[in-house]
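Form 7-S
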Amino acid sequence: MQTVELTCAPALDTAVREVWQQLSGAGLPSLAHNTHPGHRPHLTLASCGAAPEGALDAVGELLAEALPLPVRLTGLLSFSARSRRRVLSWAVVPTFELVDLHRRVWLLLDGAADPDPHYLPGRWAPHIGLTRRLEPEELALAHTVVGRHPDLTGSFDAGRSYDTLTGTTVPLGPL
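Output:
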């Protein structure tokens, strides 16, 4: 799979990592445990089997024009993650600018192989991941540990594409 992701500016990156550490400190499987060298807080805009020829270059040009992009994180979301397990995420407010950027990315990815339906326009729930594969009782503990965070503002300042087959990350847009 190939993704198109937005990465957090330093202050927002630090804030998300602090929540990862809070969850880890409580013994929960937070994303702080991901050891991939390129792993960092991000918002996935698209995921597909393979992008059409030249599409990622075009996405990079689009991101160069659109970033930095202001963002507001608010509330927690929970998604199913195989069997009865859940994933906990921080919700990203879907501003007009963000939703329009998402739509434009998918226009450039038109014809992509095996698009992940969860990331398609009209089905996408923008979020930044906090945990993976929580058991139901761990989800309750995670909510207790994180509590009600106040809304957090920041920005996305760069883009990238991650290839799950090779494990490589390629910058897109501004560096």
